[in-house]
TrEMBL record:
Homodimer. Its EC number is 6.3.4.18. It comes from Rhizobium hainanense. One of its GO terms (biological process) is 'de novo' IMP biosynthetic process. The gene is purK. The keyword Protein transport does not apply. This is N5-carboxyaminoimidazole ribonucleotide synthase. Keywords: ATP-binding, Ligase, Nucleotide-binding, Purine biosynthesis. Residues 104-291 form the ATP-grasp domain. HAMAP family: PurK. GO terms for molecular function: 5-(carboxyamino)imidazole ribonucleotide synthase activity; ATP binding; metal ion binding; phosphoribosylaminoimidazole carboxylase activity. SUPFAM superfamilies: Glutathione synthetase ATP-binding domain-like, PreATP-grasp domain, Rudiment single hybrid motif. ATP binds at residues 100, 140, 145-151, 176-179, 184, 207, 261-262. Belongs to the PurK/PurT family.
Length: 350
């Protein structure tokens, strides 16, 4: 492998391109937006939509393997691309991850528990589903939701369900039972083309306004819970014949057991700490996997906290830069719109 194609040119694509460069790989990104975060570090860019057949054919011709930085690459386009060039992770992972209904069914099929759920395709469906969960639940769009967008929480039977279906856009929805969790964790894991699996330590995640705020290592969980997360990751990776890095989110219940929430077939925001606290980051791990190189050791050499810099958080940059043992990583975005991920910092705790 000499050249790696990356579909998507956001910050994840940028960090993948940086890791690829260090191992002497060239990168070509496919991204419609010209001035995107990855444009400044990739070797070349094809400016076109993610499902543009001609652009994908060109990407296939110019690259030895193609990967992606986001889970909403249209499955048909990815499958078509896979007939022309190796695509890792396999398009099946996209298919299982981009619709919450398919995703939860798949995860349950791996004998990993999730919240209970009902498909909701009408207001009547919503009312039936809510009644089944005693009036509590989280209503979500099945597709394209991120950072808590496209969600509505029902806390009790007193919360009016009226207009709930239309409020989320009259698109296919899912009602999940409300999980009273003690904390949230995620695991970043990788599978190489030789089938070997490497798991990073689970991170404990705190969200603010629906967006990941901090990931802390170690998570306050037992070794048994950590082992359960690793086991779940291994099952999912194996079931998909996966190659690359995956991020899987879990809720931790009071008794330490895990409920899987969602998975992302790509490098993950809650794995950014690995660049500071491990010798091999999730980005290099992903590049190693898709390029057919041996996976790196995922062991963590330090405790740490990763904090996202969202919107105006970036104004505190001078203070972060003055802290010891703190790795600052910026994404090259000029306009700090509210809710926009501008960068992140990882502070080693030692
Ligand atoms: P991401 O940006 O991580 O992709 P997302 O928009 O896909 O987020 P989820 O991860 O499904 O959304 O949900 C966002 C957050 O909402 C979760 O991290 C959790 O805090 C809360 N949440 C989601 N589903 C449930 C549930 N069934 N019960 C309780 N809380 C939930
Ligand atoms: Mg998500
Ligand atoms: Mg999530």
């Amino acid at each position: 492998v000499k050249t790696i194609g990356i579909i998507g040119g956001g910050q994840l694509g940028r960090m993948l391109a940086m890791a690829a460069a260090r191992l002497n790989f060239r990168t070509v990104i496919l991204e419609p937006q010209v001035d995107c975060p990855a444009a400044h570090v990739a070797n070349a860019q094809i400016v076109a939509a993610y499902d543009d057949a001609a652009a994908l054919a060109e990407l296939a011709k110019r690259c030895d393997v193609v990967t992606y930085e986001f889970e909403n690459v249209p499955v048909a386009a990815a499958e078509d691309l896979a007939l022309q060039v190796t695509v890792y992770p396999p398009p099946k992972a996209l298919e299982m991850a981009q619709d919450r209904l398919t995703e939860k069914s798949f995860i349950n099929g791996c004998s990993i528990p999730t919240a209970r759920f009902h498909a909701v395709d009408s207001q009547a469906d919503l009312e039936t589903a809510l009644a089944d969960f005693g009036g509590q639940g989280v209503l979500k769009t099945r597709r394209l939701g991120y950072d808590g967008k496209g969600q509505r929480v029902y806390r009790s039977a007193a919360d009016s369900a009226e207009g709930g279906y239309a409020a989320l856009g009259s698109v296919p929805l899912i009602l999940e039972s409300f999980v009273s969790f003690e904390r949230e964790i995620s695991i970043i894991a990788a599978r190489g083309s030789d089938g070997k699996v490497a798991c990073y330590d689970p991170a404990e995640n705190v969200h603010r306004n629906g967006i990941l705020h901090t990931s802390t290592l170690p998570a306050s969980i037992s070794e048994q819970t950590a082992a359960e997360a690793r086991k779940a990751a291994e099952k999912i990776l194996t079931a998909l014949g996966y190659v690359g890095v995956i991020g899987i989110e879990f809720f931790v219940l009071a008794d330490g057991s895990l409920i899987a929430n969602e998975m992302a077939p790509r490098v993950h925001n809650s794995g950014h700490w690995t660049e500071a606290a491990c010798v091999i980051s999730q980005f290099e791990q992903h590049i190693r996997a898709v390029a057919g190189l041996p996976l790196g050791n995922p062991d963590r050499h330090s405790d740490c906290v990763m904090t996202n810099l969202i919107g105006d958080d970036i104004l505190a940059l001078p203070e972060w830069l003055r802290l010891d043992d703190t790795l600052v990583h910026l994404y090259g975005k000029t306009e700090a719109r509210s809710g926009r991920k501008m960068g992140h910092v990882t502070q080693l705790l030692r």
